[in-house]
Write a structure and sequence with these properties.
- The structure is a single chain.
- This protein is of the alpha/beta class.
- The protein has a domain at 14-173: Aldolase class I (TIM Barrel).
- It is 31% helix and 20% strand.
- The chain has helices at residues 66-69, 75-83, 101-113, 152-155, 158-167, 181-192, 206-222, 231-235; strands at residues 14-20, 26-27, 37-43, 71-73, 89-93, 117-122, 137-141, 170-176, 197-201, 226-227.
- Helix 2 packs parallel to helix 3.
Length: 242
């Protein structure tokens, strides 16, 4: 069962799990910008508990100590880190980054003023702050399906999905295992007017990813949806921090 999370007030700075892409260059691995050079700011904390989550260190306090796997970092430090690289795409991911969206606004403003662009990776359960719905900011919204093991009332928030759909700044990406799950995606797409739609096969090894991709490809093509990949799983022997 998921637990609502709020991060407001308190100490300054954002709660960060990891930063990567500066010392060891990497790519955006999923969605519309797949293959583009990117920097990654991974924020800690999440309001969902997906069974297949590959970043449980951002929320699973039964197995991780938040004092060890996260730290507070100031906006000034994060901006300096982003500016230290010529790469123009900064991906803000998690966890669920929009838990901290109020504190993200000053960082977003600084990064955009420097001529960079931003993509948020979000589970689509938080209505985006209007201050983030600006040019050069995009949202890769990944509503969770029943395969996540999270009850629907926690993983599907109509007001948030409707806000993203109306923004014109979002793409909708679904982690999928089987052809049968495409019907579940179709129901959400029709109900909330989600477009464009990206289907991302689930898999934590190249072999598993290839198998799932081949199982889904024809059915995704028949629906005229996009098929995206988990590039980091295919490209790097150890994809963590890449």
């Amino acid at each position: 069962m998921s637990t609502p999370v709020q991060v407001t007030g308190g100490p300054t700075g954002l709660i960060v799990a990891e930063l990567f892409g500066v010392d060891q260059p990497t790519f955006q691995g999923e969605g519309p910008s797949c293959g583009c050079p990117a920097l990654f700011l991974r924020l800690s904390r999440c309001n969902l508990t997906c069974s297949w989550c590959d970043t449980k260190e951002t929320w699973d306090w039964l197995h991780f100590d938040p004092r060890v796997v996260s730290k507070r970092v100031s906006v000034a430090e994060l901006a300096a880190w982003a500016f230290s690289s010529p790469v123009d795409l900064v991906v803000i991911t998690g966890g669920e980054p929009l838990i901290q969206q109020k504190k993200l606004i000053p960082l977003v403003e600084e990064v955009l003023a420097a001529g960079k662009r931003i993509e948020f990776e979000t589970n689509g359960t938080y209505v985006p702050d209007p201050a983030l719905l600006v040019d050069s900011v995009r949202f890769n919204v990944s509503p969770k399906l029943a395969n996540s093991g999270v009850v629907e009332e926690h993983r599907i928030v109509p007001a948030a999905l409707e806000a993203f759909a109306a923004s014109g700044q979002a793409a909708f990406k679904f982690v999928t295992r089987t052809v049968a799950e495409l019907d579940e995606i179709g129901t959400l797409v029709d109900r909330y007017g989600l477009d464009p739609v990206y289907v991302m096969p689930e898999g934590t090894t190249p072999e598993a990813l290839i198998d799932t991709t081949r199982a889904l490809a024809d059915a995704v093509a028949a629906r005229r949806w996009h098929l995206t990949q988990r590039l980091h799983v295919l490209a790097f022997p150890n994809p963590r921090g890449r």
